[in-house]
Design a protein that fits this description.
About 70% of the residues lie in helices and about 0% in strands. The termini are far apart. It contains five helices and no strands. The chain has one domain. The longest helix has 15 residues. It is globular, with a radius of gyration of 13 Å. Helix 2 crosses helix 3, helix 2 crosses helix 4 and helix 4 packs antiparallel against helix 5. By secondary structure, it is mainly α.
């Protein structure tokens, strides 16, 4: 199985599992730091990210995964916000 196909399966599993995904944790952090648009919920954020990831190529998914992983390591809203702003171009929402 080639790497792209294997990565696709991993992302699909990640998007469809019931466990707390990185996207969900990321959206929860965005909510805590007030970076989700007014009137939007964490669930809205997660759904928007999952829909956006469906159209990503394997290299775009790798970039998005790196941004999510890096940003989720940051604890303060200031550092998370900076990471979010810097990584927005790699994320669908």
């Amino acid at each position: 199985m080639n790497k792209r196909l294997a990565f696709g399966f991993c992302v699909l599993a990640w998007l469809t599992t019931g466990c707390s995904s990185d996207a969900e944790r990321y959206c929860e952090q965005r909510d805590e730091c007030n970076t989700i648009p007014f009137g939007q919920s964490v669930d809205d954020c997660v759904r928007a990210m999952e829909r956006g990831f469906e159209d990503y190529s394997s290299s775009e998914l790798e970039d998005a995964d790196r941004v999510l992983t890096d940003c989720l390591k940051l604890e303060s809203c200031d550092t998370f916000g900076g990471c979010w702003v810097a990584g927005k171009k790699h994320l669908p929402y």
